[in-house]
């Protein structure tokens, strides 16, 4: 099922489509919200499209509102169970209400040229790791970024590097994702990489 709002962002096809995973909570300092807002704003100002989980709470809602205000198309993809809890952002340009989490994640991945994780909790981590795993298995070839704002992901990166040292991961896997502390430069790098990559994949087979 899809609800679509008619607005000016409809008329022009977006310059790029970025899927962003981020917290359904706002975090404990105003810097998290400011970053989510800056990401939404950047996407809108650069003629992009935001694909995200379709919620209106926490960083998700802040980012989506900023993207809409800056003129971006915003595609929300949300399972019907979460809509029943009234967690959906009804202002999205397209709101896809889907049967389950699996369908949601496949559609989000299909509609994006690149993926970015902002600070978040277990939902964000699960989505980030899944899309990273799909990339290593060749289900897609789209760039993936982890925004390490203020060192939020330092301890995770330390752990991942220790998994490389202990032989459970390798550098090739680490190189499949980019990290950066500055949102604008990281998004620019992802968009540029998406423009040069062959985005063919097998997302229909996940
Ligand atoms: P978390 O990091 O645990 O806050 O979860 C955030 C991620 O999980 C988002 O990227 C969403 O895709 C999904 N998610 C978690 N909670 C919600 C919610 N209330 N509404 C929509 N999506 C959610």
The ligands found in this model are: adenosine monophosphate
The structural domain count equals: 1
Bin the strand percentage: 15-25%
Query: Which sequence of SSEs, written as H and E, runs from N to C?
Result: EEHEHEHEHEHEHHEH
Count of separate DSSP helical elements: 8
Give, in spatial order, the strands making up the sheet with the most strands. 1-5-4-3-2-6-7-8
Q: Determine the oligomeric state from the structure.
A: single chain
N-to-C CA distance: 21 Å
Overall CATH architecture? 3-Layer(aba) Sandwich
Judged by helices, strands and strand pairing, the structural class is alpha/beta
**Count the strands?**
8
Q: Would you kindly provide a written description of the structure presented here, covering whatever features stand out?
A:
The protein has 206 residues and is α/β, with parallel strands linked by helices. The chain has a single domain, classed as Rossmann fold (3-Layer(aba) Sandwich). It contains eight helices and eight strands, in the order E-E-H-E-H-E-H-E-H-E-H-E-H-H-E-H. The chain has helices at 30-45, 58-69, 80-84, 101-111, 122-136, 154-165, 171-175, 183-196; strands at 2-4, 17-21, 49-52, 73-79, 94-98, 114-117, 144-147, 177-180. It has an eight-stranded mixed beta sheet with strand order 1-5-4-3-2-6-7-8, with helices on both faces. The longest helix is centred in the N-terminal third of the chain and has 16 residues, at 30-45. It is globular and about 45 Å long. 40% of the residues are buried. Bound molecules: adenosine monophosphate. The site of adenosine monophosphate (AMP) has 19 residues, from helix 5.
